[in-house]
Amino acid sequence: MAIAAGTFFEINSAAAASNINGGGFNPNNANFMTDGTVDTNTGNTSAPVFKSASYNFDNGDIGAKLYLKSGTNCFANTYYTIASVASNKATLSAAIGDAETFSGNMCLPSTVVGIASVGTPTGITFGIDYSRSTAAILSPGALSNIGTSSTTTFGGADAKISFVGNLLHLTGGGIGGTIGFYELVSFTNATTMVLDRGIGNNTVGASGNIGGALSLGSSDDAIFELARGSSTVSSKYFAKGNATYSIGGAVAVAAQGTAAHPCMLEGYNSRRGDRPTGSTRPVFACGANQFIMNGGSWNVRNISFTGTGTDVLVMNSANGRVIECKAVNSSTTAGRSAFNIAADANIFDCEAISYRGIGITIAVQAIGAFNNYVHDSNIGISAGTRIPVIGNIIAGCVTEGILSSDDENPIFGNTIYGAENKLGIGLLATTGAGEITVRNNIFYGLVTGISHPDGNTHNHSDYNTFFNNTNDVNSSSNWQKGPHDIALSPQFSNVAQLTGTTATTSGSVLTQSGGDFSSVIDGTHYLYLVSGTGVTAGIYGITAHTATTVTLDIAPGTNATADKVWQITTGLNFAVGKNMKAAGYPGAFPGGLTTGYTDIGAVQRQEPYAGSGNLHQIESGFIRG
Amino acid sequence: MSSYSHKDFTGLSFVDHDLFDLSYLTIKGSCFFQREPDTQVFPENMSGVTFINCNLDNCIIPEGNEVIDCSTLRIMTLEDGLDWIVDENNSPIQPLSQTEEPE
């Protein structure tokens, strides 16, 4: 045996360094205690008092999670924090939202009070997950076995039944021991537990840590290679947010899940399953390394990645998904990607920036790019053959918003924004590219909206708006607009631009005499340095500002000549006005019995209430009133 | 553990910033990665700092500071456009990228 598929791993920046803790818990263990109950009529309250004839809770259990696996009238597959201990009993935190409930492949905050629908449930099967703490619950120093037996002797007589399901990280092999991670499968007595496999051959004096979270920062690939998937369960990794993890070494994960039960790497803010989407996500700082998922069936979600490598996050995982993540590639080398998606994987609801390269590279084997925010890159999305690019906001990209690198891309419902003073090409097709379908897109603020190098008539384009572009298409012979294309302003809710032409630079600071940077938001807005003596043109992150200066995250070159041309897009609210309302496809569905009302662009308008023809209902209400 | 732990300082310098006095701190899990080898990131007179599980690739670490279980590679982008681990003479040792071909 090895670490079981379905083991949950905890990653916490406050944990002991160098991944020395046990770091995991297997909720599918078959040997948990089965006699859990509560003090009378506390089971359906926010503070159940939990007890067991098999186990006396003690102060060392405070902060650990009681895992309620099953029980009549109980809320199964739920983790409750042990808030306090008295008289060998544990008081649990069970208010709405306190607990973590697992259903299928999802972990969600609890929506009910208590641990059961009745006041005094009995016969509860439960374990204790010690991986949530930052320190190990026990660091045994005298572990041994006979032959290669999985029966392990605890020389300190300090084994507990509550350890069942937790992982032991054997960090000291003693004589004959093999360093690694082991599951504590069952409890015999204080001197004996059975592990998933032998710790070595006639091992003496081995040592390690039981419980406690993983820290990352040291040989991290080995941590993710512990993952496994099966036909019923898969491994899951949860990384606590509001912290940066400096990824230790190159990570190229070969371990894999299954299509029905993918492995998961998920960030959380304060509770597993709360799925943060902003600054509270954990940050994986990769430096020059890539973070690569090669094994099939991985979901990576709710994590921010930074780096400068060839790519920051590579999803080379068949059936893989990247969801609600952010990646920033700040390399000054051209052509690098924030996200690189391949192998039947897809990406949605993510944010991508690559200062001199591609926000999202999505190769021919992948599935698609949906509802992402891609900005301040050289190229926004580079799409391979037949890759759908749907519902994305692509803004401020220097060269192209979308590069169609081959054929047959459906390009639907995107907002492609260059700059108020016009920047880049909205959609660039490569020579020979054909059967590209372009519908319901906003092309705004571009030097050229759509550019195709070849004369052709086999691409389809309709129901788009082109506005504030130098040229809507590069040539009418190479790209034909459709009969329902319009030339109306999308009336963005709040998008503006700061510009300057006479700035100077010193170190990381750009100074614009007479400038006003008061609307700049550090860490959110980016500066495009267009040109100037002694500086490198390109995108730069803004880390600080004053009224007349911005501090950049990369020094562009020091030069006192007052000729630096720069621009910053602010506001960044691409919600649209009434000009886009119901102007997209579908209008009349085939058959003539149904009419649709899609707004053009990625951002759909929020109307007072849903339903076809609701506008007329509102007007009727006003008339009757 | 100091407030400089678990932060991303990629590309940033502490050389000329008096506000950032790192001396005698323990810094865990932070990324100080720089884009070029032998970059002076910290003041020469900084001392007593213990770095644990940090990314110190391409950083010069002044004498008198401790490095525990950190990455201290020298990495350069060479003429082929790829990142390589290089030696003290900037000669290539091995490529950094480990992307496999999709199946």
Query: How many helical elements of chain B?
Result: 0
Reading the helices and strands of chain B in chain order gives EEEEEEEE
Q: In what order do the strands lie side by side in the largest sheet of chain A?
A: 2-1-19-22-25-28-31-34-37-40-43-46
Rg of chain A, alpha carbons: 29 Å
Average pLDDT value of chain B? 87
Beta percentage of chain A is 35-45%
Topology:
The complex is a heterodimer of chains A (625) and B (103).
Chain A: E1 8-11, E2 24-25, E3 33-38, E4 49-52, E5 65-70, E6 78-86, E7 89-93, E8 100-103, E9 106-109, E10 124-129, E11 143-144, E12 151-154, E13 167-172, E14 175-177, E15 180-189, E16 192-195, E17 200-204, E18 207-210, H1 220-224, E19 236-240, E20 244-246, E21 251-253, E22 263-268, E23 283-285, E24 291-293, E25 298-301, E26 304-307, E27 311-315, E28 321-323, E29 326-329, E30 337-341, E31 346-348, E32 351-354, E33 358-362, E34 368-370, E35 373-375, E36 379-383, E37 389-390, E38 393-395, E39 400-404, E40 410-412, E41 415-417, E42 425-429, E43 437-439, E44 442-444, E45 448-451, E46 460-462, E47 465-467, E48 471-473, E49 494-506, E50 509-511, E51 526-531, E52 538-545, E53 549-552, E54 559-573, H2 614-624
Parallel strand pairs in A: 1-19, 19-22, 20-23, 21-24, 22-25, 23-26, 24-27, 25-28, 26-29, 27-30, 28-31, 29-32, 30-33, 31-34, 32-35, 33-36, 34-37, 35-38, 36-39, 37-40, 38-41, 39-42, 40-43, 41-44, 42-45, 43-46, 44-47, 45-48
Antiparallel strand pairs in A: 1-2, 3-4, 3-10, 4-7, 5-6, 5-10, 6-7, 6-8, 8-9, 11-12, 12-16, 13-15, 13-18, 14-17, 15-16, 49-50, 49-54, 50-53, 51-52, 51-54, 52-53
Chain B: E1 26-28, E2 39-40, E3 50-52, E4 59-60, E5 66-68, E6 75-77, E7 83-86, E8 92-95
